[in-house]
Structure formats: C-alpha cells, structure tokens
Specification:
single chain, alpha/beta, 6-stranded mixed β-sheet, 4-stranded antiparallel β-sheet
Length: about 325
Amino acid sequence: MNNNDVAWLFPGQGSQVTGMALALMEDCDPVRQTFSEASDILGYDLPALIADDDATRLNQTQYTQPALLVASTAMVRWWRAHGGAEPGHVAGHSLGEYSALVAAGAIGFADAVALVALRGKVMAESAGEPGCMAAILGLEEDRLAELCAKASDDRTRVWPANLNCPGQVVVAGNGAAVARVVELAKAAGAKRAVTLNVSAPSHTPLMAEAAEAVAARLEKISIADPDRALWCNARATQVTDAAGVRQALVEQLTQPVRWSASVEAMAAAGVTKAVEMGPGKVLMGLARRIDRRIKVATGDTPAEMAVNIALIGGVA
C-alpha cells in the first residue's frame, strides 16, 4: 500500500557530490549490489569514481548522470530494506525523472543505468559548440524569456530550461549566449546570476540529436506502467502508462523542466511529506519556496535515512 500524502523527490544534475550514498553500503547488501551491478554495466568502478576527491570525472555529464541515478536508487533500496514507507507519488528533476521511473517500477535498473549512460554521452556530444547553464534568481519566468530572446543571435542561443520555483529560473544554451543573458539579468535587477557546474545545455532545442538517440534506445527497452503517481517534467502532469513514459523522457530533453508547477500539482493532489532521494538539499529548498505545506526530509547516510524513516513512517 502506498501513502498518498508522501512523495519521493529525485534530484538531477548539479546535485552530485563526492562520496554520495557510499556510506549506505556499510550495512546493506542491496546497496552494495546496486553499486556492483552498475559498475559491471558501465565498465568502470563507480564507487571509486564517486569517492574520488578530485571529482573531475564525476562532474562530467557522461559520468554524472549514471552516478546520480545509482546513488538515488541505492537510497531507495536502503529505505526499502529498512522498512520505510512507500510513497504514493514520485517525481524527479530532469535526470531525476529516470530515478523516479525505476522507483515506480516503470524501467528496470539495469536498463536505466545503460540508458542514462547513453543519455549523458549524447547530451555531451549533441550541443556542438560548448554549452552551459546558469541560475538566475530574482526575476520571473516571463522576464527571463524576454532576456533570453535578446541575448540570442543567429549563431548562439539561450532559453529558459528549468522553471524551478518562483524567482528562480535556470537558463541554458550556447556558452556565449548564456554569458550574455547572465549580464543582462544582472543589469535587470537579478539578485544573483551564476553559471552552474553542468557541461551540457539541457532542456533546450540544442538537445534535439540527443532526444533522437534516446528515443531510438527507448524503443528497445521494456517499459511498464508506473505503479504509483509519477509526475513528469515537461508537462507537470501524471504519466500513467508506458507510452507516456517514453514520450515524457524524449520531451524532457528539449523542453523546460516545469518543476515549480509539478510540486504545486503534487500539493494539490494531497502530498504533505516528501523525501529527497539523492544527495544534497536542492529540492528541499525549492519546495520551501513553492509550497511550504510540503515538508521535505534529506540526507544520504544511514543515520540520516533512519531519522527520515521515523519522520515519514514505516511500511503501511
């Protein structure tokens, strides 16, 4: 039985940190198996990559994406192994949508690892000229859309990419255009405008080739209907069947992440508690700005996860 007032929220690229979720291997065979299986599929030692203090590879798109998926799945498996409550809702921010689909039984873990490895590779390759993303705080969506249009030209373009919460929009595109919109945003009164540690212009038309490659791979993967409410990025609505899952994963590559609208929709559906199933506290911070009625628990160590289970409740 799923708890309809509980959601699992899965973070996306930019939340990666050295050592994420590795402490969960200490007391949980399913977590150790998760990392081992992923390493076999990827062809490299994933725990060693995540543990690397330098983190050079961890911050590269083709490595970041499978690493975050595996860290989030490891947290879910630790939670389940320790009797945590099953949520009635799942949602993932950008890449996190894949973790949500694994948690909801729509995509098998092995298929998801291979798929996000491909996704990261083709995203890194498809933009052509180096691209990037930048977070703009203090300006609304419509104003940022205007500034993106002004900063774009025939050769380099930038678009709103992540509609994260009121007053926080992430833009993405060609590097030169992103730099221009950052300066325009500062001049327009933005509280902050910072380039993110992301090496691909996600959720823009520059990802068209990547979307085609992902769509082709999705046709070869077995996908099931989600076993609980799953909220998709591109439309901020529920995906209820396998065909919708395929469509959502292709759409999210070239269209903005409508995270603020997704959280609002979950709140309207009765969600009051959530667990951020991934490293960091990015989604907790966004939820506070979107709807404070949703209380989000965070943490990826055994002690933190045990506290979260106590807060959210055991298996219903």
